[in-house]
Amino acid sequence: MDKETFKKEGYKLIDYIADYFENTEQYPVTPAVQPGDIFSQLPNAAPDDPEPFERIFKDFDQVILPGMTHWQSPNFFAYFPSNTSYPSILADLLASGMNAQCMVWLTSPAAAELEEQVMIWLRKALDLPSAFTGVIQDTASTATLTALLTAREKHSDFQINKTGFQHNKFTIYASEQAHSSIDKAIKIAGFGVENLRKIQVDSSFAMDVKNLENQIVEDKENGYVPLCVIGALGTTGSTAVDPLLEIGTIAKKHNMWFHVDAAYAGTALLLPAYRHHAKGVDLADSFVFNPHKWMLTNFDCSAYFVKDTTSLINTFSIMPEYLKTGIDNEVNNYRDWGIQLGRRFRSLKLWFVLRSYGIKGLQKILQNHMNLAHWMEEQINKTEHYEILAPTHFNMVCFRYHQLGWSTEKSNDFNQQLMQSVNATGKAFYSHTKLNGMYTIRMCIGQTNVTKDHVIKAWENIQETTKGLLV
User: Is the whole-model pTM more than 0.85?
Assistant: First the structure.
């Protein structure tokens, strides 16, 4: 592809993306395809000769697009959103065009210094403690693993990095509602999943701190070394908020690393009215949230904040001769601030988003999402046989349909069928969890362009589908 073809086709793609972004609700949210449908339409080998871009794009439009789930649809209510915005897309286009490898300051000074400043902006915008220093990771999963590895090395005086585990007696603590990425990180970090303690939750699905301390004391009596406790500010299942102040106090009492996983709901801290959920975060050693979920910044972009940057850097720093520069002691070489050596220019899209919307613009969008969720909660509460199954702290509603006299098994089967039937229409997309053994439909209202009309239609669709299933 030459320059002129690149420009011609690039202009077309910008138009295509803009039209797609404005018209995503016209597509079924999830595609009507079966496993193997897309694969069977693709050639068995790459072409020997060049193909024109027009043909490639035609195949994208006719083969790939029909098999896509449309995360940017305002009718996408499943999982957590992965929303984006025009400024973020344009920034990522610029970053892709330059394709800078931002591993050390020297490889892209502007990228390193923009990242440093943008993370200060975010820290202030969320009203996080000034003791935190930020760095961009790819995902919260990586950030949590980074926290665990740093805690491990700091406690062992960096000897595990040097000699490996001699006798592993470390224990890690998280609520039974904590994200599965913690289990995965425990495996990767070498602790072993048998040393992950899943702490019981209370009636609101938040960690029971009495149970936490009892478990820590019991472990210490049995010769274990409690290393880290992970508190959630918004669990995946129900957006429950663990009592961070109490957890942090216990962590300090037992000399443990305290990590706060706010991957999704951390964005809500942009709104002062929701900052009470973060009470106790000043006791945390590290904190993570994902702008790529709910802050209009496209995937991937995870904001990780840590107090002890020296231990972080000492955990990951390597200094081969070919990476040494004459200014290493004067700058941030972010390749030493996490697992990845190579790094994308992620701060650019954060910068574009923060400047394009401003904090007030982002707050307006977030507050709208909160309002829509509480409206939905009100409809469920006043409609017979529907019930809320978890507190609506932010913009996610957990509910089910249940009639008096139904067994848990019958109710679970019905709600599973209800959700799957709605999803099959392509008019909306939901995901589920189980709370206290009850099949729970999760409705997360956080897509960039969702409006009340979309939520009203979604609620009507749920009720109509329910009636159809009851006939």
Answer: yes
